[in-house]
Design brief:
It is a single chain. The protein has 14 helices and 37 strands. It is elongated, with a radius of gyration of 28 Å. The chain folds into four domains: about 210 residues, Aminopeptidase (3-Layer(aba) Sandwich), CATH 3.40.630.10; about 100 residues, Elongation Factor Tu (Ef-tu), domain 3 (Beta Barrel); about 230 residues, 3-Layer(aba) Sandwich (Aminopeptidase); about 90 residues, Peptidase M42, domain 2 (Elongation Factor Tu (Ef-tu), domain 3), CATH 2.40.30. It is of the alpha+beta class. Helices cover about 25% and strands about 20% of the residues. The strands form eight sheets. Strands 1-2-12-3-13-16-14-15 form an eight-stranded mixed β-sheet, with helices on both faces.
Amino acid sequence: MRSTLLLFSGLFLLSIDAPIQAQQLGEAVRSDLERLTNTVGVSGYETSVGTYVYEQLAKYHPQRDSMGNITVTFGSGAPHRLVAAPIDEPGYVVSKIEGDGYLRVQRLPQAGLPPHYNELQNAQPMTVGTRDGKMISAVTAGLSIHLQPGRTNPPDPDDIDNLYVDMGAQTSEEVLRSGVDVLSPIAAERHLLAVGATQWSGTAVGDRFGAAVLMQLARSLQGAPLHGTTTLAFVVQQWTGSRGLTRVVQESHPDEVIYIGRPRTSANAKVEPTAALGSGVWTYTSSTGSADLDPSLQQELERAGTELHRGAAAPFIVRGYGAAAALPSRTIHLGVPLLWPTTAGETLDERDLAQLLRMFFRYLHVEPMTVASRTSLPLQYDALPQRPSVAPSTESLVKTLSLTYGISGHEVMTHDAIKQLLPPWAHPETDASGNLILRLGSASAGAGVLFMAHMDELGFRVREVLPDGTLDLENKGGGSPAFYWGHPAVIHTSTGMRGGVVMLPSDYDTAQFHFPTDFRIAAKLHVGAANAQGVADLGIRVGDTVTIPKRYLSLQGKRVSIRSLDDRVGCAALLRAVWMLGPTFKRNVTFVWSTREELGLEGASEYAATAAKDGRVPATVFALDTFVSSDSPVESKRFADAQLGKGFVIRSIDNSNIVPWKDVRKLQALAQQHKIAVQYGITGGGNDGSAFQRYGSTDVALSWPLRYAHSPAELIDLRDLEALAEITSTLALNW
């Protein structure tokens, strides 16, 4: 595999016992930011985040109250200064477990999030908490584009009634055995991604930067000559009524409160859109609750550090039940600019954190320190898999292939991985279209059949570098923009992978905004550059490809999820069948791994035309491709209702082909004879085999059931892959 992302090259977690050196300061903050952001802490379920904070600051004798707030105090006497930051994030909690194993959810907070928060979670990898505090993998259900034509009222993806979480479980009992229960927290799977030279992107980074700053302050305040008392507070349940902060303020009676955290929006207070990354530290006020605060604290902070930019936001004390906490007149809300807040692509700039830290050091009379700059390194590819000497398992094949990247027209990584995974005795060739071809037997052995699966996946191509440093993207394939916009991405350059974010329109957080239904609508990519030269300095060029990062998730039972199972499952089944047939196989059979299927069966069409010209048209083509299944609570069961775990599928009818009914029955009988689980049905989309029909071939499409096609949450049952590989080898021997 070449796909593992090296997100924090060269960085390490600074030991709390090590002296704080200027060159280490940046590394410590970044390591904290990574750990804090990558640790799930839904409001009310912040235990894991709090444990990390508590353990890292143990030598400073932190206190943790019954709610989960963590405080650490330095100095003594008056004045008493409270510096607070939240450690929670928005998410969901399990509200019901359906009999078929799906989870229903309620949002935390139950109100107060952007209008499209739910839709941006559709068809995404998630993580679910268990009763013993572990986190296990899941995905959210999403509509498959192939099944929507003809539907006049598809489910509204913003409606929480249409939000289902899929752990791969098949019964409620299986869910409970996993440790998941009603009240289990659920949040987006995330891995903080380096973007450009100074930026970081990922779910909840805007909820954790304040805690990363406080942790560095704690390490710096120990032993420093302080005037008065300074308490650092890592507070919980900020999203759900500021309950943690309210308790800490109520119990400590501070003379001064400095809150570090994201600005919130409300009906009468919207965050200023002019807060550009890299612009420095911001202070937020609103028309309610802050007009009477003493401006002297802001003036003192500015004298100590840098100019504070002023912005509008809702009060940081979220009004819950009962009276709001009484804040001292010396109170201020500090923050840094955030792009696309409360999305998976939320992004901040570490230069702003550096300014915030320097201001605090000077204000608290701690020796000023220089925050080290980050060396911008490309994310790394893994090496190609080594050629196996014995037959790999079907799961290892599909995992290896799925973790490679290769959008339509740029399938070289997948091509090379497949070539490496073939048996040592196999000698494939590559044609002018990039199709990988393996011929077995000889023409004299019979009329010949062909098996084909496509190597490409959805993605984008850099069409233009714009003057403002963003990239104009050309879509390669079809899918819902809501599954990709506002999410981290990787750019595949000649020197490695770079991080980016698929941009959202400026009005994405308004009720009037709606995601387009056409995936071909142009998208743009943010790569952390200020201009075209900055893009060039990152090694990014026109023609480079862009994909959403991938992780292989093992779910309950035999189910797995990763983007590009369409059609890496078909590719893996062909590989497995070749290994099963062995080097002495004599029949005339051809295996083809094709290119550019998602662009309109282009690789298959070119191969078919060449085969016709050379007089090598196969009598039958078995195209191995997805059976887009309605085995999901958000889909209509009217058609495409092949069930996961019930065997391979004869893709009898799709938009490109109708398999002769006699061949459906013949194939069904052959599967039953060899005790291979089989299903059959109708679905949407086209298959590579249909490109051969005009030349006289019969297209018999073979499939497996796939949930959430063309999304980051594609999900299969490995038993269906096993059945697909078995029927492929059986057909090679018997058709």
